[in-house]
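Mods, move this if it's the wrong board.
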Amino acid sequence: MKNGIKILLVVLFTASFCIVTSFSAFAADKLVIETSDGTGVFTVSENGDVYSASRLLSNGAAAWGTAPFVLGQDTMNRGMIITDKAASNQKNIYFGWNVGETHEYAEVFALQENVGYKNFIINPNGGYVGIGTKSPSEPLFMGSGAYCSTGGVWTNASSREYKTNIKQLTADKALDALTQLRPVEFAYKVDKEEKHLGFIAEDAPALVATKNRKGMSSMDVVAVLTKVVQEQQKVVQEQKATILELSRRLALVENGIKAK
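Not the wrong board. Structure tokens:
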């Protein structure tokens, strides 16, 4: 054989699968596992790339829970599972696409088979978590600039560098929005025992409601209240000045009458 030696090893290990191992200067793939009809289910290419058409189990495992590492798919799941070796009710960490036909989003979660979902903890012993950023400077830091501080305070992104179309809120707009706000008592459907105070986004004025009318920012309401209070303070100060002036004039009148 010119320019190289080719060795082909075929091992038949079931009625439907065979392993074809090829070492060749000409072969594109170095390890190929095929079904009896020639469909490739596992391939290692010459440059080291690995392709698997199904699950890849380690430690000779045949199913989840018997190996610490599982790659691939299993009945609508698409992703990677890290699991313990429990014979039953094993605990798994799952990384992959959502279960189902659509696979519209990726997900990460912990669960225990036949028990339910478990708590999923990120950096329990320290370190920051960034979403949309590579350099978080707070325990939870958003790429938008908002963050949750070490003390547990949620802080909105408020720097001028994050904003555009900045203009002063007028007193008329603020007062109009304030008069339209309807404070309510309520409980969220997911926890009917916990009581809250707030507003209904669909009923709130457009100035303080999100564009989809499903949420509200507390900072927007604070801005409205601040503007209204500032205007009221101006009125109070003007009234104080008027009262002082009237008091002064009244004193002059009284002193003039006494002088006579």
